[in-house]
Amino acid sequence: MSLRNVTFDEAREEMRSRAPLPEPETVPLDGLTGRRLARDLRARVDNPAFTNSAMDGFAVRAADAAGGRPLRLVGESRAGVPFTGDVGPGEAIRISTGAVLPDALDAVLRKEDADDRGDVVVARTPPPAGAFVRARAEDVRRGDLLLPAGHRVAAHEIATIAAMGLGEALCDRRLRVTVLGSGDEVVGPDRVLAPGQVYDANRPGIAAQARAAGAEVLTSGLIPDDRDATVAALAAALDADPAPDLVVTTGGVSVGPHDHLRPAFAAVGVRETLFGVQIRPGHPLWLGVRGAQVAIGLPGNPVSAAVCFHAFARPLLSVDDDWDTRMPLAVAYRAATPRTELIRCRERDGALVPMSRQASHDVTSLAGATHLAVIPAEAEHLAAGERVRCCRLA
Fold it and tell me: What is the block-wise mean pLDDT of the chain (394 residues), using blocks of 10 residues?
């Protein structure tokens, strides 16, 4: 049974429940950024892998260095070339940052705290035991959890993974997305607009959002306002090799005489699971499934399509955005509809400034926007400073 005219949160929950579950694949280190881990990632080695010096200076016994006693220098430990001899009582070695600290020694005397006399060294400021020493495994032990399954790897986390000697990780396969626009009035940027025509904003815009969500965009085509052509285009998209996990359409999903997508989806075996959400913009949102494949029909206005993709298609791609953060409105806001409104805002000094134009055809409301704010259906007027739910745009 299809859900009809549901709330914003009910629609998002339906999207999460329909997210495709791709099979895992091994991904090399240089391709991990943005990928979702299919298995816990655990440390392969201790970090540090050995006890070492945090400073350039001298490795000593803290007890020997106390009281300004001269210590005889018997060797050196430098990065990559450990000292292999014995260090007896009253002796020390030179040591570099990151170099192995011999087991017999327990502190590092910094160069700036030492009187280096060539063959002996005297501590001007004697170090306590453990001073400037990095103990083995003080950061992480072999087998400890680094990143959990389901985590999406950020660029700055690659250094952590590489430091563990991990050259690859098991990740969910990138979900494959096909983007289809519709409408006889839509043309590409290579054309001069004729009367009644508009430039195609949805296909490049939605494809970019899909890639930003970590998906692989397979194809992107335009469907004319014709029932048979729509059925043929959907069948070709769903049955392509490789097949998409998610088909995203824009426009043609409402109930007008030229809105052919809903019956066309039914004709190719896609079962409707949701139609209509109590939001502005984006009320005629549609969702359907065919086996493991999912299809989402977005409205045709570019603002509605972009907003709905962020709010509803990203959950289908298993992106867990934070919609529970609350921020204050910088100015008062009067709702234009009894539906929940998703308004485009710019962050300024920790507050949300609604973009000056909020209609679904006002594409400039996307330019410079940093957040979507949720204006509750029951809120006719919100005062400046009132806190509202919001989500940062990605």
Answer: 94 97 96 96 97 98 93 97 96 98 98 96 97 98 97 96 97 97 90 93 96 92 91 96 97 77 95 97 96 96 96 96 97 92 97 94 95 94 97 94
Q: What is the dihedral of CA 166, 170, 172, 176, to 10 degrees?
A: 80
DSSP string computed for 336-368? SSSSEEEEEEEEETTEEEE-S--STT-GGGTTT
How high is the pLDDT of residue 33? Answer: 95
Give the H or E element holding residue 216.
Answer: strand 216-223
Where does 25-47+138-172 sit in CATH, by number? 3.90.105.10
Q: What is the pLDDT of residue 67?
A: 84
Return the domain boundaries, the chain.
Answer: 3-22+174-316, 25-47+138-172, 52-134, 325-392
Q: Are 305 and 297 in contact (CB under 8 A)?
A: no
3-22+174-316 and 52-134 share one fold = no
Start-to-end C-alpha separation, the chain: 33
Fold of the 52-134 domain = Molybdopterin biosynthesis moeA protein; domain 3 (2.170.190)
Tell me the backbone φ, ψ of residue 207, rounded to 5 degrees: -60, -40
The pLDDT of residue 55: 97
Fold of 325-392: Beta-clip (2.40.340)
Give the CATH number of domain 3-22+174-316: 3.40.980.10
Cis peptide before 281 (omega within 30 of 0): yes
